[in-house]
Amino acid sequence: MTLNVRTDEALEHALEALTERHGSRSEAVRYAILRTYRETLIEQARQDAERLNADPGDQAEMLAIQRFMGVAE
After folding, report:
1. Helix 25-53, helix 9-22: angle, nearest 10
2. Residue 60 to residues 45, 49, 56, Cα–Cα distance (Å)
3. What digits encode the pLDDT tens for the residues 10-50?
4. pLDDT band for position 8 (50/70/90)?
5. FRET label pair with 60: which of 12, 31, 41, 50, CA 20 to 30 Å apart?
6. d(Cα 63, Cα 39) in Å, to the nearest integer?
7. How many CB atoms lie within 10 A of CB 32?
8. Among 14, 39, 42, which residue's Cα sits nearest to residue 28?
């Protein structure tokens, strides 16, 4: 697949820096997209953990599962 992107000066500067590190513009863009996606997933997991931690019902369910698995008393 091919992706066309319009760039501005700031994006060109960032892309040049990433290209130096990753060897080509394509690799730099792949790296940036995958890195951003990974960070998005980690942030979503953090938010989910905070939500679960704040919900007494979810805490009770997690404890029941841990007890069933033998990893909690």
Report:
1. 100
2. 19, 14, 6
3. 999 999 999 999 999 999 999 999 999 999 999 999 999 99
4. very high
5. 41
6. 28
7. 14
8. 14
pTM of the model: 0.72
| Residue tagged 């060109």 (tokens) | 12
- The amino acid occupying position 31 is Y
SS3 track for 8-64: CHHHHHHHHHHHHHHCCHHHHHHHHHHHHHHHHHHHHHHHHHHHHHCCHHHHHHHHH
CA–CA separation, 70 vs 54, rounded Å? 24
